[in-house]
Amino acid sequence: MTSEIILMNGYGLYVWSAFSFTLISFVTLILITRKQLSNEKRKFASRIGFLSNEKLKVVKLQNTNKEILDIALNSKV
Amino acid sequence: MLNFFKPNKIFLFTSKAPKYVSILLIIVLSIGLTEALFLSPEDYKQSHSVRIMYVHVPAAWLALSIFSLMTILSLGIFIFKNKNFSLICKSLAPSGFIFNLIALVTGALWGKPTWGTWWAWDSRITLMLILFIFYSMYLLSWKIFKKKGLDVKITSLIAIIGFINIPLIKFSVDWWPTLHQSSSIKILSKTTIHPSMLVPLAIMTAAFALFSILIFLMKYNTELIKIKNKGLDRL
């Protein structure tokens, strides 16, 4: 049964390669995109730290900035 | 109506959505893979090699659909002068590119046992390769052209010019039939594929679509935060 699933009448190499390539491509793209996203979040959070109090007030007035900061500090995705 | 496309409004949604889309993607992909690899029947002619269809066909469909959507949005950039469309286009392109690559590679892996060759200069396969070149040009243009405004114009032009390829890919199997088989699933006439194969194909297509939504959301958030970072420099 197991060997039948793996070998697939001699087509196993092609079928498993196709599915493996697809899944590896998916995981690679997710990891690259996630890395880019977390880099930008980290950059944003660190830049906020260098702002003067006045500028910080302006930044924090915007909801989007609050959201980014919140995600940068708390979220995993 | 265009107010809906304002980045600030969209960010509230796109920052939370990836978590839920990921969960849904894992569920749908698991069901799809079980159906495609173990539960669906083998083909009487192609035997188990037909299973490659469950990754090859959805990948090709989505590569074409995403490029078509990018073309529509690129036209929108020129007509409405809405730069957020370019942000959406830029965020859609990576998943389209990956789907195109998957369609080409899995096509080769399907071609070897079915036609006896990894590659042929068949009309549809060649046109898919040209689409891959357009995707590559589009993504590279964002890296090469740094001048503000020029990058948006050039990438939009690439998406619009590349669209000529889409109907050619769709009808190539009817106009220049060589190796690649004609479509089994048709919108206007009866589908020639059995429901036992159609269901896994539909589930895998849904999983692939969810994957492209996930990548789009993550990439779009990255682009928005990039803009916010630039905004901090100007403060």
Q: Keyphrases for this structure?
A:
heterodimer, A: 77 residues, mainly alpha, 4 helices, 84% helix, 0% strand, B: 235 residues, 8 helices, globular
Blueprint of the fold:
The complex is a heterodimer of chains A (77) and B (235).
Chain A: H1 2-7, H2 12-49, H3 53-61, H4 63-74
Chain B: H1 7-14, H2 17-39, H3 53-80, H4 84-115, H5 123-144, H6 150-162, H7 165-175, H8 195-234
Helix pairs in contact in B: 1-8, 2-8, 3-4, 3-6, 3-8, 4-5, 4-8, 5-6, 5-7
What does this structure look like?
With 77 residues, chain A is an all-alpha fold. Chain A has one domain. Chain A is built from 4 helices and no strands. Chain A is rod-shaped. Chain B is mostly helical. Chain B is globular and about 65 Å long. Chain B has one domain. Chain B contains 8 helices and no strands. Chain A binds chain B through residues 5, 8-9, 11-12, 14-15, 17-19, 21-22, 25-26, 29-30, 33-34, 36-37, 40-41, 43-44, 47-48, 51, 55, 58-59, 62-65, 67-68, 71, 75, 77, and chain B through 7-8, 11-12, 15, 18-19, 22, 33, 36-38, 42, 47-49, 51-52, 55-56, 59, 94-95, 98, 101-102, 105-106, 109-110, 112-113, 211, 214-215, 218-219, 221-222, 224-226, 228-229, 232, 235.
Largest sheet of chain A: none
**What's the helix-strand series of chain A?**
HHHH
Please state the CA-atom Rg of chain B, rounded to the nearest Å. Answer: 19 Å
Helix content of chain B: over 70%
Tally of individual domains of chain B: 1
Oligomer: heterodimer
Helix content of chain A: over 70%
Q: How far apart are the termini of chain A?
A: 39 Å
User: Per DSSP, what share of the residues of chain A sits in E-state strands of 2 or more residues?
Assistant: under 5%
What gyration radius of chain A follows from the Cα positions, in whole Å? Answer: 23 Å
Overall pLDDT confidence of chain B: 90
- Shape annotation of chain A: rod-shaped
The secondary-structure element order of chain B is HHHHHHHH
Distance between the termini of chain B: 30 Å
Number of domains of chain A: 1
Number of strands of chain A: 0
* Mean of pLDDT of chain A: 81
Tell me the number of strands of chain B.
0
Largest interface (C-beta under 8 Å): A-B, 39 and 46 residues
